[in-house]
Amino acid sequence: MPDSLIHQIKVVNRQLSFSCSEDQALLMGMERCNAGAINVGCRGGGCGVCKIRILSGEYEVKRMSQVHCSADQLQQGFALACRVFPRSDLEIESDHCDAVLIPGDKPAEQNE
Amino acid sequence: MRNGVMRPGHVQIRVLDMEEALEHYRDLMGLIEVERDNQGRVYLKAWTEVDKFSVVLREADKPGMDHMAFKVLNNEVLEQLEAELVAYGCEVEQIPEGELSGCGRRVRFVAPTGHNFDLFAEKEQTGKWGISSVNPEAWPRGLKGMKASRFDHCLLYGPNIEETYVLFRDVLGFELAEQVVDPEGGRVAVFLTVGMKAHDVAFIDCPEPNKFHHASFFLETWEAVLRAADLISMTNTSIDIGPTRHGLTHGQTIYFFDPSGNRNEVFCGGDYHYPDHEPITWKAEDLGKAIFYHDRVLNERFLSVLT
């Protein structure tokens, strides 16, 4: 068995890159490289903290919370990084979270 | 003053993928799968519970909590509480007997935090799992994973904490066991109980309504919490924080996430509460120590990662 294919993920807004294998979601690949390029939340597609926009490249996604990423947004290249599996090198933009709620604060403004 | 609400009954949680969720709740946490209904919902229970179920999982495209339910003493109390909720100004919804398999009729209201709460008087009792109620052995063989012993409480985030506290106190008879108070004297967190436990449900102030922070399950010992931590690593389960101790309630704890991003806790220990106890107060300025007693620093995830 060959090793799973590994792709380079370029995070343009943080000027950082990390490598991620095809069987690993981008967020876990990033954590494994200790890259600190995407904010980490629940790692399960539920909280929206790791929302990114994929600018170029091919990928597959697993089901994620529609509260944080609607079908329309998925079409536009938004996704939660914990549910995105690379199929080629990718260019992405992190920090698209619109879900961070700190008690006492007002809801964060939408990024889009 | 207590008003006939007896204890937590169950929580219904939305998951993105049922089979992944079952590997988590059944195989890792050690809940027992009881039934699958014609809507595809899966019912589970922890082994020490006498009720048929305490956790219901429903597959959906957004994780979070559908509702949390409390058991009341009997049907007369259920009718009385329903009338008192209406008189208080709550809209109540009738959920017919059998909507959840084995559960009697439920009375639903929406708390000012935006969460659905159900009250019920009757649920099928199948007894503790794997041991008899006569000359019971110490524990059943064949439990999996963390061997969670019971569903204990939920922590929920939403607005209108004070209004919610007053409703739970004045209508449902909950008592304030612990609170977090800001420098102006406002409550930003309330830990409410209807028994001797430090909390049966807790709320933390948050601008967005109806957010789910975690469902918590009880373990007997600190050793069991450490063993749960080992199992979380063995299964590459998403961890939040711990093992550590809370300042609030003083429970020993670990937080982690199910495969849909819903947070779970397993914990042991914790303080007790009697009706004549004054609430324990933590200062909001010391929230780090209140939540994580050893690190004394809040990780941002605790406040911002919700489903």
What does this structure look like?
The complex is a heterodimer of chains A (112) and B (307). Chain A has a single domain (6-94), classed as Ubiquitin-like (UB roll) (Roll), CATH 3.10.20.30. In chain A, 11% of the residues lie in helices and 28% in strands. Chain A is built from 2 helices and 7 strands; from the N terminus they run E-E-H-E-E-H-E-E-E. In chain A, the strands form 2 sheets. In chain A, strands 2-1-7-3-5 form a 5-stranded mixed beta sheet. In chain A, strands 4-6 form a two-stranded antiparallel sheet. The longest helix of chain A is centred in the first third of the chain and has 7 residues, at 26-32. Residues 103-112 of chain A have low confidence and may be disordered. Chain B is α/β, with parallel strands linked by helices and 307 residues long. Chain B has 2 domains: 5-120, 2,3-Dihydroxybiphenyl 1,2-Dioxygenase, domain 1; 152-304, 2,3-Dihydroxybiphenyl 1,2-Dioxygenase, domain 1 (Roll), CATH 3.10.180.10. Chain B contains 6 helices and 17 strands. In chain B, strands 14-15-16-13-9-12-11-10-17 form a 9-stranded mixed beta sheet. An 8-stranded mixed beta sheet of chain B has the order 2-3-4-1-5-8-7-6, with helices on one face. Chain B is globular and about 50 Å long. Chain A: Residues 7-98 form the 2Fe-2S ferredoxin-type domain. Chain A: Pfam families: Fer2. Chain A: InterPro entries: 2Fe-2S_ferredoxin-like_sf, 2Fe-2S_ferredoxin-type, 2Fe2S_fd_BS, Beta-grasp_dom_sf.
